[in-house]
Amino acid sequence: MSQYTTGEIAKLCAVTVRTVQYYDKRGILVPSALSEGGRRLYSDDDLSRMKVICFLRELGLPLDAIGQLLAEEDPGSVIDLLIDQQAAALRDELDECREKLEKLEALRRELRNKQIRTVESIGDIAKTMQGKKKLKKMRWTMLLTGLPVTALQWFAIIRGVVTGRWQLLAVWAVIAVPWAVLWSRYYYKNAAYLCPQCHEVFKPTFRQMFFARHTPNTRKLTCTHCGHNGFCVEVAAEQEVKGHA
User: Fold this and answer.
1) For residue 129, is pLDDT > 70?
2) How much is the mean pLDDT over the chain?
3) Cα–Cα distances in Å, from 226 out to 83, 93, 221, 245?
4) One-character DSSP codes across the chain
5) Rounded mean pLDDT of 91-96?
6) Are the C-beta atoms of 51 and 30 separated by less than 8 Å?
7) Which residue in 98, 84, 7, 9 sits closest to 50, CA to CA?
8) Contact 152, 175 (CB under 8 A)
9) What are the tens digits of pLDDT across the range 157-180?
């Protein structure tokens, strides 16, 4: 039966000598024998075990899990569980990487639209991007819940024109007014505004926000920090900001 030194088994498995020594210290790959001079000696079985360890490490399994698996008399009883756990961890990691990649691409697009790349401008982009998903979800929910209300309005108008019966329009008003009030208040609570002058996030009064000229992503407001009056970028209100209730 062949015997291998630490250096030889490291070379055969494409790892460092320190890695082999560390696995010995952890009790995952203990040498079968020691030379007269006290050097570790590994057998063919140890080499096969090391290759299994390296393979499982390539799959991302932690050493504790590998040690548990190799210590089992029936490895098949736990390998499925370990595979499921590792697959779930890798999926989470992939999702996190995709999210980071999306943020990087969004940052690149925003920077291309900026003529001045100052620290403040990058900070503004960061504040805008942080709540982008929240604002998008809120707007889509508002749109989807508003579609039935709008459909009822047009149906009531068409029915009134054709038949002369306008009662359904009154029903629509009873539904639409509370819906508009509730959604306006909800939107106000979850939205804040970024001043392009002082780069601070602020919250205007409900009246100012409601009646302000606006685009899909900005509103013309007066900053409560510096007094700048102009179009401010809408961001998600993640925390309490200075302004008016």
Assistant:
1) no
2) 84
3) 56, 42, 12, 18
4) ---B-HHHHHHHTT--HHHHHHHHHHTSS--SEE-TT--EEB-HHHHHHHHHHHHHHHTT--HHHHHHHHH-SSTHHHHHHHHHHHHHHHHHHHHHHHHHHHHHHHHHHHHHT-S---HHHHHHHHHHHHTHHHHHHHHHHHHHHHHHHHHHHHHHHHHHHHHS--HHHHHHHHHHHHHHHHHHHHHHHHEEEE-TTT--EEB--HHHHHHS-B-SSEEEEE-TTT--EEEEEEEE--S--SB--
5) 89
6) no
7) 9
8) yes
9) 998 888 888 889 889 989 999 988
Tens-digit pLDDT profile for residues 31-49: 888 888 888 899 999 999 9
For residue 41 the two structure tokens come to 């000696």
The total of other beta-carbon atoms located within 10 Å of residue 66's CB is 22
Contact 63, 26 (CB under 8 A): yes
Question: Dihedrals φ, ψ of 195, to 5°?
Answer: -80, 125
pLDDT at 192 over 60: yes
Give the tokens for residue 8: 């030889």
Q: Which residue has the higher pLDDT, 119 or 4?
A: 4
Q: Are 135 and 191 in contact (CB under 8 A)?
A: yes
